[in-house]
């Protein structure tokens, strides 16, 4: 799972989230930022609030202290497959080095040399590559 600060940077850089069952998110408050919640019809389900905004409703006693939060209060923590999908045609390859480091190769079809993004975990390499892509001027 990527770090919440990286997830926040992805969100601030324009990564859009259309919540679906199985998505992970956190609520960026001092008490909850280290808790990852999963959208699931059994525990946390997406809905629409009174003003038409998206909300996440917490069901049952599992999350007894929460009733619902608006989507803008949540930070999506994309999974490895979601990060790779967000890269789209920029994604060229993923490889693992002998030292265990993961390398994501990204670049457009016009690029002669793809760019390498290295990280200790595959999802971190994908997130780094996506940040580079989203923030490229």
Essential attributes:
alpha+beta, Double Stranded RNA Binding Domain, three-stranded antiparallel sheet, 23% helix
Q: Number of folding domains?
A: 2
Task: Work out the helix count.
Answer: 3
The main sheet comes to: 3 strands, antiparallel
Low-confidence stretches: none
Which word captures the global form?
elongated
For the secondary structure, the number of strands is 9
Radius of gyration: 17 Å
Within the largest sheet, what's the order of strands? Answer: 2-1-6
Structural class call reads alpha+beta
What's the rounded overall pLDDT mean?
Answer: 89
N- and C-termini, Cα separation: 27 Å
> Percent helix among the residues?
10-25%
What kind of assembly state do the chains in view correspond to? single chain
Beta strand %: 25-35%
Give the H and E element order: HEEEEEEHEEEH
What does this structure look like?
It is a single chain. The chain is an alpha+beta fold and 137 residues long. The protein folds into two domains: 60 residues; 56 residues, 2-Layer Sandwich (Double Stranded RNA Binding Domain). It is built from three helices and nine strands; from the N terminus they run αββββββαβββα. The strands form three sheets. The protein has a three-stranded antiparallel β-sheet with strand order 2-1-6. It has a three-stranded antiparallel β-sheet with strand order 3-4-5, with no helix packed on it. It has a three-stranded antiparallel β-sheet with strand order 7-8-9, with helices on one face. Helix 2 runs parallel beside helix 3. The radius of gyration is 17 Å and the shape is elongated.
